[in-house]
Amino acid sequence: MIRFVATRLFAIVPVLLVVAVAVFLMLRLTPGDPAAVIAGDSATSEQIEQIRAGLGLDKPITTQFVIWFSGVLRGDLGESFFFKRTVASLIAQRVEPTLALALCTIVLAIVVAVPLGVLAAWRHGGWLDRALMGFSTLGFSIPVFVLGYLLIWLVSIKLQWLPVQGYRRLEEGLWPFFKHLILPSITLSVIYIALIARVTRASVAEALTEDYVRTARAKGLPELAVVIRHALANAAVPIVTVIGIGLALLIGGVVVTESVYSIPGLGRLTVDAVLARDFPTIQGVILLFSVAYVLINLLVDLSYLVLDPRIRY
Amino acid sequence: MSVSVAEAPPALTPRRAAWGKVWRNNAVRLGGVLLFTLILISILAPWLGTIDPAGIDPENRDLLPGTSGNVMTLTGENFAHHFWMGTDSYGRDIYSRVLYGGRVSLLVGICVAILSLVVGIGIGLAAGYFRWLDAVLMRVMDGLMAIPGILLAIALVALWQASLLTVIVAIAVPEVPRVTRLVRALVLSIREELYVEAAVSVGTSTLKLLWRHVLPNTVAPLIVQGTYICASAILVEAILSFLGVGLPTDVPTWGNVMAEGRLHFNTFPHNVLFPGVFLAVTVLAVNMLGDGLRDTLDPRFNKRGDK
Fold first, then answer.
1. A160 near A80, Cβ under 8 Å?
2. What does the alpha-carbon distance between residue A233 and residue A251 come to, in Å, rounded to a whole number?
3. Considering the entire predicted model, what is its pTM?
4. Nearest to A285 by CA among A253, A255, A260
5. What is the pLDDT of residue A125?
6. How far apart are CA B55 and CA A128, in angstroms?
7. Which residues of chain B, if any, have pLDDT below 50?
8. pLDDT at B156
C-alpha cells in the first residue's frame, strides 16, 4: 500500500518535469527574439532591452531554466508584465470563481451522468439507451460557447429566469452565488456528462454480463441491489478514471465558459493574458492547471485501492 | 516477399467486404452525406449567391435576417442582395461569412488530423519498435498530455503570429501525444504476431517490416482516431477565433463571426446562432462518421459488443 503510493508519487515527477520544461521552452522557442515578442510591435529598443534583462535572457538557457524553476518551486511564478503584480497573487485572486464553477460542474455531471449511464446499461438497447447515445454524440459536438449563448438567450433573455452574466462571491450570499453559477455549470457540464455517461454505460453493461450478476439474480436479490451493489460497484474503476481524464476537457471548457458568462476566474485570466501577450501569467496559469490535472489523476489512481480491493500493488 | 500465398476469392475481397460493412452503417451514411454536403457548400461558396465575406458596408449595418438591400462594393458596383442571415455591425453579410467560414473550419480540421497522424505515427512507430527509445519518448508524451490541449494551443498561437499554418500546428501539437500512444500500443501488440516473427525470420529489414507489416494493421484504428481529431480541431479553431486569439478578425471563420456577434448578442442573437448551428452540425457530422467507423472498422470495440 505505502509502496504503491510511493511508486505513484515518484511516477509523476518526470511528468511534472516535462510539463515544466515544455512551459519554460514555450517562450524560448519563439521564432525571433522573445523579448521583442513580449514587448509588442510598438516597443522601443530600451524597453526590449529591459525585458531581456528582466527575463535573464542573456544567460545560457540551462541557467535560465534553473533560475526560473527554482523560483517556481518556491511559489514564485514571476511578475506579470501587464497587471504589474506577481503572477502568484493574480492567480490567488482568481482561483475562487474557477474552483466554484469547476466543483458545481463536476457534482452536476456526476449526479446526472452516472444514473443515466446505469439506466442505459440496464435497459441495453432500449429507447433511453439510444437517446443517451444520441445525446452524448450531440454533447461532444455542440461547442461550449454556442450552448452557452443558446442558454443565455433562452433562459436569461426570453424567460428572464436567471441573470445573464457575471459572478457573485460566496460572501454576497448563497443564493446570488448559486444563481450566477447555474447556467455556466450546465453549459460546462454537457460535454462532461456525455463523456461520463458513455463510459458508465459501457462499463456497467459489461459488468451486467458477468457471472456474479447472474448469481445475484438467481439468489433472488432485488434488481436495484444487483445493479448498484454488484454491477456499478464493479464498474467503478473506469468511471472514476474517465472523471479524472475528463478534467482536461473541463479545463478547456472553463476558459471558454468564463468568457461567455463574464466570470472573473483563471480561464478569463488566461485569455486576458494571451491578448495582452503577458507570458509570465500564461506560463503560470498553464503550469497550475497542468499540475492540478496531474495531481487529481494521481488521486484517481489511488482511489482504485478503495474502489477495487482486487487491485494490489 | 515474392510468393503470393493465397489468391483472394474473385467476388468479394476482405477489403471490399469491410468497406461494404462500413457503408451499410447508418451513422457513417448520415455523417458522410452531411459532411460531403458541407464540403461541397464550402467549395462552391462563391457560386451560392454569396458576396464578398469581408466587404464592409456602412449602409447595411445590423440588418435582421431576411432583409433585402443594396450592396455597394469598394469598386463602385451596386446591386441588390437579400441578406437572409442578416449582417453584422460592419455591414458584412452573415450568410457569405458563414459559407466561406466553412472553408477555414474544414481545412483546419482535415489538416490538423493529417499532421497529427503523420507525426504521431512516426513517433509511435519509433517508440513501439525501438525499445530503447520508448521510455524517453513516452515520458515526454505523458508530460505533454498533462497540459490541457486548448491551453497549449492558445499559448502556442499567442507566441506565433496567428496564421492558417500556425493555427493548424498549434492545434495539432496537443493531439500528437494521443496518436503516439495509440500507435505505440498497436505496434506493441502487432509485433507479437506470428507474421511479424515470420518476416523477421526471413530477414526483412526493419524499415520494410514497419512499412509492410506493422503500419497497414494500424490503419483502421487510426482512421477512427483521425476523424475524432478532425472534429475536435474544428471546435478548437472556432474557440481560438471566438476568444480573439485565432485568425485575424477580418478572415471569415465561424468563431470570428460569433466573436463579433457576441457584442450585440442581446439584440442580434442570430449573429451567434447561425454560425453556431453550422459549427455544431459540422462537428456532429464528423463525430457521427467517427462513431460509425469505430463500430465497423475497429475490431477491439466489436469484441466488447460496445455499439
1. no
2. 28
3. 0.84
4. A255
5. 79
6. 48
7. 1-2, 8, 301-307
8. 86
Q: In whole angstroms, what is the distance from residue A204 CA to residue A129 CA?
A: 12
Cβ separation B258–A146 shorter than 8 A: yes
Which segments of chain A have a pLDDT < 70?
30-34, 37-38, 40-41, 55, 311-313
* DSSP label at residue A86: B
Q: What is the pLDDT of residues A256-298, one digit of tens each?
A: 899 888 888 898 898 888 887 777 888 888 889 888 888 888 8
Rounded Cα gap, residues B65 and B261, in angstroms: 13
- Per-residue pLDDT reduced to its tens digit, A22-69: 888 877 776 666 677 667 667 777 777 777 777 677 777 788 888 888
Q: Chain A partners of B156 at a C-beta cutoff of 8 Å?
A: 26
What is the DSSP secondary-structure string of B246-276?
SS-TTS--HHHHHHHHHTTTTT-THHHHHHH
pLDDT at A98: 92
Strand partners, A79: A86
Q: Cβ–Cβ contacts within 10 Å for residue B246, how many?
A: 28
User: How does DSSP assign A216-277, residue by residue?
Assistant: HHHTT--HHHIIIIIIIHHTHHHHHHHHHHTHHHHHHHHHHHHHHTT--SHHHHHHHHHHTT
> What is the nearest CA distance from A170 to chain B, expressed in angstroms?
27
Mean pLDDT score across all residues of chain A: 84
Residue B168: all three cell numbers together = 493548424
Looking at residue B218, what is its pLDDT?
83
Distance CA B166, CA B240 (A): 12
Q: How far apart are CA A294 and CA A245, in angstroms?
A: 9
The predicted pLDDT at position B44 comes to: 83
Whether the CB-CB separation of A311 and A304 falls below 8 Å is answered with: yes
The radius of gyration of chain A from alpha carbons, rounded to an integer in Å, stands at: 24
**Which cell is A306 given?**
478503495
Q: What pLDDT, on a 0 to 100 scale, did the predictor assign at position A33?
A: 67
> Which secondary-structure segment (H or E) carries B39?
helix B26-43
Cell numbers placing A203: 462499463
Q: Does the CB of A107 have a partner CB in chain B at under 8 Å?
A: no
What per-residue confidence (pLDDT) applies to B304?
A: 36
pLDDT at position B205 is 83
Residue A144 C-alpha cell reads as 461550449
The three cell numbers of residue B18 are 469491410
Q: What residues of chain A, 197 to 226, have a C-beta less than 8 Å from chain B? A: 202, 205-206
Chain A residues within an 8 Å CB radius of B270: none
- Cell 506493441, located at residue: B188
% pLDDT > 90, chain A: 10
β-pair partners for B82: B68
Residues of A numbered 13-32 whose beta carbons fall under 8 angstroms of chain B's beta carbons: which are they? 14-19, 21-23, 26-27, 29-31
Helices (H) and strands (E) in chain A, counts: 15, 0
B144–A22 C-beta distance less than 8 A: yes
Cα separation of B82 and B71, whole Å? 9
Among candidate residues B200, B120, B291, B305, the one with its CA nearest the CA of residue A133 = B291
